Predict the 3D structure of the following.
Amino acid sequence: MYSHYMTKNAAVIGGGVAGTAAAIALHSAGFDPVLYERTAQGVADERGAFLTVAINGLTALAALGLDPAKVLDKGFPTPAMELLGASGRPLARMSLGEGTLTIRRSDLSARLRAEAQARGIPVIHGAALTRAVTGADRVEAEFADGRRVTAELLVGADGLRSRTRQSLDPSAPEPHYLGLLNAGGFTAGPVDPRLAPPPGLMRMAFGRRAFFGWATAPDGSVWWFANPPSKRPIDATAVTPASWRAHLLDLFDGDPSSPAAELIRASDEIVGPWNTEDMGPIRTWHDDRIVLVGDAAHALAPTSGQGASQALEDAVVLGHALRSNPTITTGLRAYESSRRPRVAKVAAHGRRGNSNKVMGPVGAAIRDAMLPTIFRLLNRKGDPQAWIFEHRLPPLPVRP
C-alpha cells in the first residue's frame, strides 16, 4: 500500500459537512489541507434547519477517526419514521436505521470544524472561490478577494452551485428547481404531549396543501420541517419572518393530517424558505488535480435522508483512495469509480420520494389507499433500505 506521509498540500473549498470531513480524511491520508470557507467567521451559512445522520454516516464518522457520540452530542435518536395520510391516518411505519440521529446542520458543521482545527487544519473565512485552473503538477485557486493559492490537490465541497464544478467542467448541468420549498422550525419549549411524537419517532404527513414532518427533542421541544409547493423558485430576501410564518399558517390551518399549525404557532425560531433543487449527473467528478465531493458532485433529495451521510462516505473513500494509490490522479480515479455507482443508486431512491408529496383530493385518496399495501410488499423480505444503512467502510489510519 502506498502511503503519502511525505505530506502534500491541499486546498478544500467549502467549510460545511462535506468539506470539513474531506479535510480530516486528507489529513489522515498524509496531506496538509487548508479549508477555505466563503462566509465570514461567525456568520452562519448552513442551509437547512436540521438533518439526519444515518447509521452508515455514523460508521463513516468512526472511519474518519472521530467519536460519533462526541460529534453528534447535540443530536437525538430518530431510528423510526411514521407516515400519515391526508386524514391523519397512519399509512406506514419504517426503519430509518438503528442509531440514526437528528441534529442541527450548524451544530454538526461546528463540531466537525472543531475536530479539524484540533488536527491543526487551518480554516480561512471570507474566501469565496471564483475559479480553479489545473496545471502540470499544481492547481491554482483564485478567490473573490484577489488572493491566489496553489496546491497539489483541490477538493471542491462548495455545494450545489459549486464554482469548483464550473471550473472543472463548464458544460456541467446547472441545478434545477423541483417545485418545492423547504423550511423548518423549533418550538420554544415542550408542547402539549398530544402534539409531540414519542421519542425516537419522526412523523411525516401528506398534508392537503403541503408536506410536514416533526420529531420530539429530548427537552420536549419539537423540531419540524415543511415542504410547501411553489410553481416558481422563491427569492428568500423578499420574504419577512412574519410573512413566511403567516404563509405557513395559511397552508396548514384546518389540516387534519398533522398538528402543523399548532407547532408553527408555538415556534420562536423558523428558518427558510429555500428552494429544493436537483442536478443531473455530471460527466466527471475529477481531473488530475481537482475533485468534487458532497453536493458539488451529486445532488441528493432531502427525502433520501442521506445528504450528510453520503458526504461523510465520500470523505472516507477519498482518503483511502489517495493513500493507497501511487499518484493523486490514480487516487482520484479510484475514488470516483468507487463512489459513483452507490451515490447514483441512493440519489434515485431519494428522488422517488419527491414525486407525490402534494396531490389533489382524488390523487391523495388513491395514494393513501395504496401506500399501506405497497409498504407491506416492500418489507416482505426485510428492510428495503438495508443496502443503504449496512454499508461499512474501513477506518482510515491514524496519522503519525
Summary: The chain has two domains: 8-175+279-389, 178-191+205-274. Confidence is low (pLDDT under 50) at residues 1-6.
